[in-house]
Amino acid sequence: MRFRLILALIGAIGLSGCGTTAKPVPTKSPAMVPLAIPTDCKQTSILQAMQKIAAGSQYIPTQWQPAPGTELAAVLENGGLACSYGLQSSEVGTTVKWVNNANELFEKRVASWVNEGFTKVDIPSLNNSEAYFQLKKQSATQEFHVWILNVKYRGAWIQVSCTAFAQNLESGLPILKAAIA
Predict the structure, then answer these.
(1) Residue that wins the pLDDT comparison between 26 and 171
(2) CA–CA separation, 66 and 32 (whole Å)
(3) What torsion do the CA atoms of 62, 135, 146, 64 make, to the nearest 10 degrees?
(4) Which one, of 93, 102, 46, 36, lies nearest residue 74 by Cα?
(5) What Cα–Cα distance (Å) separates residue 83 from each residue in 31, 37, 42, 98?
(6) pTM for this predicted structure
(7) pLDDT at 18 exceeding the cut of 50
(8) Nearest 5°: CA angle at 179, between 175 and 181?
């Protein structure tokens, strides 16, 4: 009986010491968790954001047929998603593309964006991001309004293209925020 009591005490003492040396399991901050790439255009927050900009906006189903070597081809060939939303009859809308950046698709395009006149910009609400922006307003020499933002954020490349409603970087940011929601 005395032997069992001694063994029980030794075990209790040994176990009590184990709890004090355990280290907490580190967790990733939200900024380090990879962004989940959507798999269905109807399951994103883009339409709601677009309806605030242009009432009556809709998801615009598109059968993409990208030319080889284009950004759209790179997105789709790497398991990404491209979706358009807006008022098709008024040519008001946005196209958003998402793709995992595991193959450094974003980095491979930076030099060409800079050559095309994109400017590196800071988006204060997106910590640890990198972004390139281009705005060309419609004019006598510019037939179409161009607003494009390429962002690398939490392991993803997101491209947002907007039509005439986006007149500066800030006016298209509600679409970007919906894209990362």
Answers:
(1) 171
(2) 31
(3) -20
(4) 102
(5) 24, 12, 9, 9
(6) 0.80
(7) no
(8) 115
Alpha carbon 68 to chain centroid, angstroms = 23
CA angle 174, 107, 44 (to 5 degrees): 30
What is d(CA 89, CA 106) in angstroms, rounded to the nearest whole number?
A: 32
pLDDT tens digits, one per residue of 130-149:
999 999 877 667 667 789 99
Report which DSSP code applies to 37.
Answer: P
**19 pLDDT above the threshold of 70:** no
Contact 82, 93 (CB under 8 A): no
Question: How many residues does the structure list for the chain?
Answer: 181
Residues pairing with 81 in the sheet: 98
Q: Is 85 helix (H, G, I), strand (E, B) or coil?
A: strand
Structure tokens at 58: 């809709």
Chain centroid to CA 115: 23
